[in-house]
Amino acid sequence: MNRTLILMTLALAASSVAHADEAAATPEHTLTGNLSLNSDYRFRGISQTWRLPAVQGGFDYAHRSGFYAGTWASNVSGNSYNNGSGLELDLYGGFKTVLSKLDGQDLTLDLGALTYVYPGATLNSAPGVATSKKYTNVDLYAGLSAGAFSAKLSIAASDYFGLNSDTAGYAYFSSLAANGGSKGSAYLDLNYNVDLGNGLQLGTHLGHLRVQHYGELSYTDYKLSLAKEIAGLSWTAALVGTNARRDYYQAGDAAGQNAKRLGGAGLVLSVAKSF
Questions:
Q1: Percent of the chain predicted with pLDDT > 70
Q2: From which residue to which does the signal peptide run (predicted)?
């Protein structure tokens, strides 16, 4: 056996031992939780609490193989925006795997599904007309991440939060003309984080929502954030905004007064704890 072959064999053996040690160091089952208090709840740049505070939290389970599942909840506006529910409950699961190395960083693929549930809520309907259809949404997603960068594409496997010809034109989207179903709506989520030193993290986000058959509801959103851990808590200040049309993304009282632009730029403060 020549010297080159011996060195290659030793290198492969060392690599195998390193991977084995890394796998052994990773617990087979991991359960984590999170809890946060926020000055507003922005989903894809749009306020879900009419620019009022939100309490949020969830649990995540991960298996060493890469499979994971979790649940997350937040209070939301119980008014016409989501037709009677004051709670959003998310259920999700998926699989993560490292594809390769990219500039020394793991290139990770994330595939999964996420269901948004609003207990007790029903879809938009004409005043005085009851409906048993639930206000829910199911997304299928694929994401890639490497170091400080991540990208994810989510595709609605159902009508986008129930929007179709039967529900358009009532309640929240009262001026929206019926134009078929919205299944296949897509959201692209791009993120890049920068370590500023001294534990300070700069986060940047750019997203775009395309609503199938309802282009007037499509928009772009952005976020710039600063985060730092102090006393075991994560403190974040973020500037969030969108170019969403105000006539579709606003909320007011029953008389249409005191309207709030739900997608307008605003400062969102939060404090969170992971455990």
A1: 80
A2: 1-20
Which residue in 185, 189, 84, 169 sits closest to 134, CA to CA?
84
Provide the pLDDT for residue 238. Answer: 98
* Two tokens, residue 249: 């993304």
- Domain of 179? 29-274
Q: Is residue 24 part of a domain?
A: no
Whether 1 is in a domain gets the answer no
The H or E element spanning position 227 is strand 219-230
Comparing C-alpha atoms, which of 4, 1, 59, 68 is closest to residue 33? 59
Picking from 161, 151, 167, 220, the residue whose alpha carbon sits closest to that of residue 185 is: 161
Q: Does residue 254 carry a pLDDT above 60?
A: no
Q: List, in order, residues 6 or more apart from 16 with CB less than 8 Å away.
A: none
- Which residue do the tokens 């009851």 mark? 130
Cβ atoms 159, 204 nearer than 8 A: no
- Residue 22 included in any domain: no
pLDDT tens digits, residue range 136-179? Answer: 899 999 999 999 999 999 999 999 998 888 878 765 566 788 88
Structurally, how many domains does the chain consist of?
1
Angle at 190 between CA 198 and CA 196, to 5 degrees: 10
CA distance 254 to 122: 18
Give just the sign of the alpha carbon dihedral 35, 36, 37, 43.
Answer: negative
Q: What is the CATH number of the domain that holds 159?
A: 2.40.160.40
In a domain, 2, yes or no: no
| DSSP per-residue codes, 65-81 | TSEEEEEEEEE---STT
